Known about the structure:
Elements: E1 12-13, H1 21-34, H2 41-54, E2 58-60, E3 63-64, E4 67-70, E5 77-87, E6 97-106, H3 110-125, H4 129-135, H5 139-152, E7 157-162, E8 165-170
Parallel strand pairs: 1-5, 3-6, 4-6
Antiparallel strand pairs: 2-3, 5-6, 7-8
Amino acid sequence: MLLSELITPSLISCELSGRTKDDVIGELVNLFASENIIENKDEFIEKIKAREQIESTAIGNGIAIPHARSSSVKKLAVAFGKSKDGVDFDSADEKPVYLFFMIAAPENAHKEYLQAVAKVARFLKCNGIKEKLLTASSKEDVIKIISEFDNIYKNGISVKTKEGRVIYTQK
Length: 171
């Protein structure tokens, strides 16, 4: 699975306007809805919020990866959004979040869902990726950054779980 197979220019917003966690969730869900990836926005938003209630998906360092599986999702996809001013997303480090990768997966796509979460996490751990994304000024810039990553890590990621957490290793 390549990250570029999950995210397209129409699923990218380099200028999120939301000032709150709920605003940003709504904006990213709207990207999926505009591409007919989800059938019921409200139901998917509730799934995302339910996941956030378990534990914030803000992983620190200005990054969040909100994600959920839902029967209203037609196909696995990833949306990207960037906030210029940052948003309080209940991050463990208590710092604002600037970069958001939302993952939407069909209810029955458990393995693919975990692979997508692992792929996005691996992408964000790569040296210099955060800085490149923060300075990206267009959808095309973001796609280029993702494509460069895909070219380096084509072989994929092996996904395992332990105590409900994703553990990944490069194949």
